[in-house]
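Open question from group meeting: does this chain pack into something compact, or does most of it stay loose? Before anyone orders reagents, we agreed to write out a predicted structure and look at it together. Recording both the input and the output here so the notebook holds the full record.
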Amino acid sequence: MNDLYQALITVDPGTFLAQICNLFIQLIILKKLLLEPVKKVLAERKAKADSQIADAQKLRADAAAMKAEYEQNLADAKAAANEIVTSAQKTAAARSEEMLNEARTAAAQIKQKAEADVALEKKKAVNELKDEIGGIAVEIASKVVEREISEKDHAALIDEFIENMQNVGDAS
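Structure tokens returned:
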């Protein structure tokens, strides 16, 4: 039995060499069958991941460009809206001023017409008054001619003339 244990502990150079050759053969087989396909799969995955990263960066750059374009369009739209509002305010102010000027002109024309009408009516009233005064004077003159006037009659005629004038003044 000792021999059996002794055989297990001793190193046989032929067996040792055979085991080393067997190990190298297994390493070569593993390398060819397992390591190279694994390296190939890893390289493909790395290429795919790099491609996806490049695509994501491109998409991010495109999104940033689209965002910048959107913000520029938004700023342009705001500027256009402000310009439209400003233009509308200017137009409204100009139209308002134009309407005020038209109203002032119309009011001035109405005032001039009213003043002309008042002057015409005043002239008519003065002419009517002159006609009535003339008629009263003729009437007084005819009464004076018809009779001889005493001081008392003269005063009565003057009072009557004044009374007729007051009646004419009240009538107009």
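Observations to bring back to the group:
The two ends are 169 Å apart (CA to CA).
The helical segments are 2-9, 13-146, 151-171.
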